[in-house]
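INTERNAL AUDIT FORM
Audit reference: QA-55
Scope: verify that the stored structure record matches its stored sequence.
Auditor: D.O.
Record contents follow.
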Amino acid sequence: MSSTPLARAIALAALGASIAVPSLAQAEFLKDSKATLGLRNFYYDNDNHEPFVPSLTTPTRPGGYDQREWAQAFRFDYISGFTEGTVGFGLDVTGTLGLKLDGGRGHHPDNNSFMPSDSDGGGKDDWSHAGANAKLRLSKTELRAGNALQPMLPVVLTNDSRVMSQLYDGGMLTSKEFDNLTLNAGQLGHVIGRASDNWSSLSVAGGTRGSNQFRFAGGDWKVNKELTLQYYYANLENYYKQHFAGLTHVYPISDNQSFKTDLRYFKSSDDGKNGEPGYAFNNNGGYAKNSGEVDNTTWSAMFTYSLGGHAIMLGHQRVSDDGGFVWLNQGNVTNGDGRNEGNGGSDFYLFTNSVVGSFVRAGENTTFGQYSYDFSKVGIPGLKASVSYLSGDDITPTSGVGKDLKEWERDERIDYVFQEGALKGFGVTLRHGTYRSEGVSGLNDTDQTRLILNYTLQLM
């Protein structure tokens, strides 16, 4: 039972390659092809400290308050080369399979934050999906279209913080025709989430109706070796329009010293039916000057001093008073029978995208810092560690009146990748987050631990 979905994904890859290659009769298609099998073992412990008071309707403690889940994932990727000629063609295929190792009734919340829910209230025994992207290359421009897209751009990031990562369907164009300039544009229509086995329309956190059109365009200009400028525009139909501007500068002080400046600015406003019945949303659980509508400006500034293996980062982030920051997040979109599809949980391009909290509510001022160390500088390559702290205040209460709210989080992380021997390439990641708040709705005091084991087999 458990091997069937993965076998179908591998068969799909083989079938795609066998159909494409003979018809195109081009050696480069196979010569530059790669195939990998990724293995990920993930243990997730979410200890929610909110006190539970039994009632007639809720006589027992919900599973989400003592969440402990464990799963194994397999991911097959086939990435072809391009056929020869002025216009090159190719095919990429992805197949994923997740297996539940632990996560039964009482330890699996209905929000599907880690794996899909079964009818008994526990996690599903297995879940899977397969997708493919057709691709075309002309000169230094590539077009990809299909249902296995994984964009990594300031206005849309692919979440990979659970057992399986998100996949989007749509099309993306990337061009590097001009030296030091990378242009990106595209349109996305649906997503399959990190903890789901069904496709969903696109939305925002708190949105209950989906949108099937997310368009984006922009570019990265590497002005010189030290300075990079970015600009992107995005539009989620009937929800929001968003402008992003970014600047990254690295000043080399000496051979083993540098000072990095990272500035990010987002301006978001409503679009189309946003605010009307069906397209109003709860603004990520926070205050909105115009209820149900997007109206936000968020800026962030980070400064990092690096010396040898040491790196110290300090920064500040400001969210405007009229509404919280907004990004693609399908947490409230349900299927036909009203069940949560598990398509929520999306990343956004700010440092406050942390282990537990987000720190992007209306009016919030967040000061943050991080210390990290690369142990390769003392003869232990592959070992890295970091600790970070975020403190947010001046959060506007959801009602818009009353005392401003506060929250803080401390995160620790350690990563090790074996560099040689039988375990070469085997990676271990341990993450822990401690979150506390004063009256912030939607999140309770939480201690969260994640243990992740990764290994990738090169098949060809």
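Auditor finding: record pair retrieved intact. Confidence is low (pLDDT under 50) at residues 1-6, 52-64.
Action required: none
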